[in-house]
Fold each of these.
Amino acid sequence: MQADDYQDSLKRSLDKKATPWKSGVPQKEPMTNCQSCGSSILDRNNWGTRKDGRLSETYCIFCYRNGIFTEPKLTMEEMGWRIHRLLVQQGNMNAREAASAIDRILPVLARWREGSET
Ligand SMILES: [Zn+2]
């Protein structure tokens, strides 16, 4: 994962009204957000890729490449802490607001919903 790119992606996510990060509720069309980290995907180039090279349209390029998660062992909790750190660093939210948003958003994303690794 390229941390700078990822952070940019999350920042764009925060800048957009429609994303769950700002409102604290999942948006109506969840497939515009990565179903692993929740960042919004505005540019098709930021979608992940399937094994056959087609775009995944489910996960972003930072989470999913060539049909596999870039960090397959990552847990929802670890993802939460990672995003939490980014959100607080950016100064968009204080620690409690960020934790609260993450608690609401991450569990509804496809990667974490079933409690499965795939
Ligand atoms: Zn992602």
Note: The pocket of zinc ion is lined by residues 34, 36-37, 39, 59-60, 62-63 (CB under 6 Å).
Amino acid sequence: MNETLIKLLLQQSDGGNPALLPGAMAKPFFGPALDPLLSSKILVELPPAVEWPVCDDCECACATRPILFVDGKPIAACGLDRASDTPLEDHDLRTFEIDIEALIRAIGVSSGFPQQQHREIRQGVWFLGTVAEQHAVFITPMRSVVDDPTLHRALHAAAPQGTATLLGPSVNGASWTRFADAKISYVVAEEAFTDDGFKLDLGRLLPVSTKPRLILERGSRRATFDGRGTVLSQRAFELAVLLCKAVLEGRVVVTHDEIEKIIFSGQSADRLPSSDAIRDLRKQLGPLLKGNRTTNSIKNLIQNKPSVGYVLNLAASEILIL
Ligand SMILES: [Zn+2]
């Protein structure tokens, strides 16, 4: 299964029940990726849509537009102006409901946690099992659950030895620190999967003992290095994530090709050679290293491997992506 399908399912479960996956989002996965989820009831297809939102600037007083079929093709029909009709595709009419409990159970089973241990410890938070000497692993796809200031007490109470990793949605640095202060390792769930469908990388769930040096916050594009922070441009941030992921995945070197393909895909108007993109990232990160005793050269932090690519000189344990 494609890695991005699990990310999509978790993201769509962010608000809790009902968690819906619109057909337009599911479309790239129709067939071999989606069918097993339908047969195992992780996804349940709802009846096809018969209504559509009204046109943006419509004068009609209707709450919705009816979906009509013209020559077998669906359209969202405006009550006032045929020119405002919106042509639809068949997949636009489809909607799938995600059974969050079943999704979480599938993640637990695929990752090798015993099914009988799996339980919901409070609404929206599941205990999956333990790794390394009874270190508990919990998961929630829901942001509101993570923001609840009483959550860490519930996790401690439900953990066999009181130590825990919580897998959850992307959070900011302040939330991460709140969990770290409570001795809970917070891991962004999307970042913790292997390439193998719903299987978690158990190595990523171990207690984090060292303080991360480089923190990247997706929500704000903020990069913090040894306590100093700055907001990166979109392109520089994506490039920083790419370099970090290579370290986390044990690949180390990021090639020129990878940089040009992954970072600039679909932005042909804005293409840059990888060397220029790296120069730009170094320029934005450089000020964070001023006066740093351990790492004072940005060229050593992001090191050039001539004719191959670039290496981020940090250990996996020193990197945190939120
Ligand atoms: Zn209209």
Note: The mean pLDDT is 89.
